[in-house]
């Protein structure tokens, strides 16, 4: 995933980079010519964050908005709640569009993969790594950033239990937040979230994600 930020506000760009740089390819656009080139070369893996102060030619900008299907979000860094909004958007943007998390591929005994997907224990639920989603009974549900990270780390555990504290540390969050997202993930992957059979907690051992081993 590539995030292009069109702004001449260095503080604003630095803040956005702090939020996204470790998980996305980030490009700083500083002039209209560079912006047009980036729009022309954009792919389905591109998203643009546009500082409203950069909009000088409304006709040109309107044409670009109607000619491209690439997501363009317009924000005003001068508004007092802009940074707060971006913090709130961070997870939904990443989850919706699929953030590129660079980690070792899951191979061999780690999981049964089908075109980039891991079949979970009930054999009816697929965890799609490439597009950060769950496919269950013909329906696809997009995962938020933390939901994806949670499942990704558990897949790498290869069905070995991991304690809540260790899992929270790996996800760089608190145990309280972890429990919330375990509940959210169960709602997406379990037939009965109140009686989980895929993402289980083993007393005294920790959490485990069951995967299908059949060819």
Would you mind describing this structure in some detail?
This protein is an alpha/beta fold. The protein has two domains: 96 residues, Rossmann fold; 102 residues, Winged helix-like DNA-binding domain superfamily/Winged helix DNA-binding domain (Arc Repressor Mutant, subunit A), CATH 1.10.10. The protein is 37% helix and 21% strand. It contains seven helices and eleven strands. The chain has a five-stranded antiparallel sheet with strand order 5-6-7-8-9, covered by helices on one side. A four-stranded parallel sheet has the order 2-1-3-4, sandwiched between helices. A hairpin with a 2-residue loop joins strand 5 and strand 6. Helix 5 packs across helix 7. About 9% of the residues have low confidence.
Task: List the keywords.
single chain; 215 residues; alpha/beta; Rossmann fold; Arc Repressor Mutant, subunit A; 2 domains; five-stranded antiparallel sheet; four-stranded parallel sheet; 7 helices; 11 strands
Task: Note poorly predicted spans.
Answer: 96-115
- Approximately how much beta-strand content do the residues carry? 15-25%
| The CATH C-level class name of the largest domain | Mainly Alpha
Q: What does the main sheet amount to?
A: 5 strands, antiparallel
Indicate the structural class: alpha/beta
User: What separation lies between the terminal Cα atoms?
Assistant: 31 Å
Helical proportion, percent range: 25-40%
Secondary-structure arrangement, i.e. CATH architecture of the largest domain: Orthogonal Bundle
CATH T-level fold name of the largest domain? Arc Repressor Mutant, subunit A
């Amino acid at each position: 995933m590539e995030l292009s930020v069109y702004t001449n506000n260095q503080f604003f760009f630095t803040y956005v980079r702090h939020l996204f740089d470790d998980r996305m390819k980030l490009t700083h656009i500083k002039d209209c010519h560079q912006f047009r080139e980036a729009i022309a070369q954009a792919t389905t893996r591109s998203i643009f964050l546009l500082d409203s102060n950069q909009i000088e030619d409304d006709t040109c900008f309107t044409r670009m908005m109607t000619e491209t299907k690439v997501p363009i979000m317009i924000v005003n860094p001068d508004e007092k709640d802009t940074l707060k909004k971006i913090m709130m958007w961070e997870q939904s943007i990443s989850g919706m569009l699929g953030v590129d998390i660079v980690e070792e591929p899951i191979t061999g005994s780690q999981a049964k993969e089908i075109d980039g997907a891991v079949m979970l224990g009930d054999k009816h639920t697929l965890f799609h790594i490439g597009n950060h989603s769950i496919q269950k009974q013909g329906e696809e549900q997009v995962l938020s950033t933390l939901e994806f990270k949670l499942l990704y780390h558990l897949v790498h555990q290869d069905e070995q239990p991991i304690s809540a504290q260790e899992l929270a540390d790996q996800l760089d969050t608190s145990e309280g937040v972890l429990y919330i997202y375990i509940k959210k993930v169960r709602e997406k992957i379990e037939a009965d979230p109140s009686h989980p059979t895929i993402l289980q907690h083993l007393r005294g051992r920790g959490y485990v994600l069951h995967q299908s081993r059949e060819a």
